[in-house]
Fold this protein.
Amino acid sequence: MTDTVGRLEQYRRTFQRYASVEKDQEKVMSKDDFLSAIVPNEDFKKIKREQFELLYKLADKSNKGCVSFNDFVIFEDLLSKPDAEYEVAFRVFDVNGTGKITFDQFKRVLQNNMPQDAVPFDFDCDWLKLYIGSKEGHHELSYQEFTQLLKGLQGERLRQEFKHYDKDQTGFISPEDFKKIILDVAKHKLSDDLIDHLPTLCNLYSGNNISFASVIAFHNVIRNMDMVESVIRKAIDDSSDKKITKADFLKHAHQASRYTAFTPMEVDIIFHFAGVDDDSEVLGLDDFARILDPRWTTFDKKDLTDFDYQFVSDHHQQDQEHGILWQIVGSAYSFTLGSIAGAIGATAVYPIDLVKTRMQNQRSKVVGELLYKNSLDCFKKVLKNEGFPGLYRGLGPQLVGVAPEKAIKLTVNDFVRGKFTNKQTGEIGFWQEMVAGGAAGASQVIFTNPLEIVKIRLQIQGEQAKNIVAGEMAPPRRSAIWIVKHLGIVGLYKGVSACLLRDVPFSAIYFPVYAHLKKDIFKESPDHKLSISELLMSGAIAGMPAAYFTTPADVIKTRLQVEARKGQTTYSGIFDAARKIFAEEGFKAFFKGGPARIFRSSPQFGVTLTAYEILHQILPLPGHSNPAPKDASSSATMLKSIEQNTTFRSTNALKMLLDLDYRFGVYQPTTKKNA
């Protein structure tokens, strides 16, 4: 069950990464999307991209012109079968989907997919009649019968091509014709070095031409290359100098099988091409590597299984290994780094926050006060009258509150989102995202309200000192501790309803917008981790509407929490404040400090995220990082391995068809013949 879930998750990640078309409110793959997902980017250059369209036709079995997720799962499940290459070949020839293949179907599919310059296949040969009968016989091949025919078909093509080039029936062909034959039926399996040296087979024995026996021997070596490699590795491992002779190879070949696996001619051919530049006939693994195409190396499925498990539950696995204490350490680690990053972000934008507070508290000419023309004027006057330290009045309480505020907000949002998220599809409704964000905003108020009221009163003190009327006593400068004692528990929560009115909609807007920016604009997915700049932009953009549209609530909160001076209007609650502000200062007053809120919230989140990423890099928690996959330094490497597995299997699925001709599927008939 776990293995099945792991495979489905792998299929889903691959599908989501490449599917780019929206159809009936569902993502689907176009032909180009599908080919991008299954065609290797670097290896197997001998196989053309259009040959993989044979697999697309199998995936789009309903001819819809696209591949749905269900189609993709069925296709991937087909490729995971142990006999996938035979199954794929059978489905290509079984054009009617009846589970049987007739003579006409076999002939039509083979002709329509062979290149025009290929040696014509003799469908009237005795060999084919033994399997499928004559055209008039109407013998239909089952899947099992077809696989047996397919296994021998390459040998029959080899025989027919040799006969085609040996027009005088001498039993020999030229090295150039030999190369043409071998490339036709095996080019996709040969290393580049072996292809370059194919004509040199004529030098193995006396004479300038190549016999039919040599062609068959060479073909047998290629067909049994896995066995060749296994024998070579075993023989070299047992050798003291890590080199072997033909006798060593034959000895280990006999030990590896009950019957003789290779003839002396086949062994001669193996050593000839491995030691084409070495006459010693004592060769090492590096020599034999010349005939072993590394692109056909078997993919380590264990790596994929391990990664699937790590991807879904890597942290959970680590936590269980280390116990509950380690979970606490990990949480404390994240909490600490989050606190430090939050403090850095808050400090960076604090002067903007101070200007915002001063602007929101400023009363209009109606009440006889207009200290600042705009935010820039406010900044200049604070700097002039109170100096640089004046820009950071009230920073202490702000820093104290950053840690619990950020921690509880993010935790509650993730918790509620997790409850609403569909466990099967991973989807969550937009209104559910807003509820999760709103709950996060409400939960933080328990920390933010007391700290903000202290911060605001400290921010206003410098303004009050510079705004005294002649003959009036300057108000005493109070510390944060004095303000806390003076207000008491009840006073610290003055304006809490306005704080809720601001923080709940802020988070309800912010978190869904942030999530959708990452997913829909920057295409975040399990196999596409966003860069720091993309995260910064997501956070900054999401903060803009959230900050501006909640400015009226922030203005009311500020007025309720600031200690009114003599002659200033006092407010008894949210509605009273809203009514009086509108009556005395007009609607525009509700958006005082709005731009400052945008300029503060956007960069604050960006700076906080940047600091958090950097802190994780320079201060990693030993033993609590994601497990590194084998021979890789990051999960990105393993994601590449997953893609390689998909492309490896799709390439393997074409093997039997490519054995018929390495160009199978490239040629498309221009006429509608044999239809």
Remarks:
- Residues 296-321, 625-643, 670-675 have pLDDT under 50 and may be disordered.
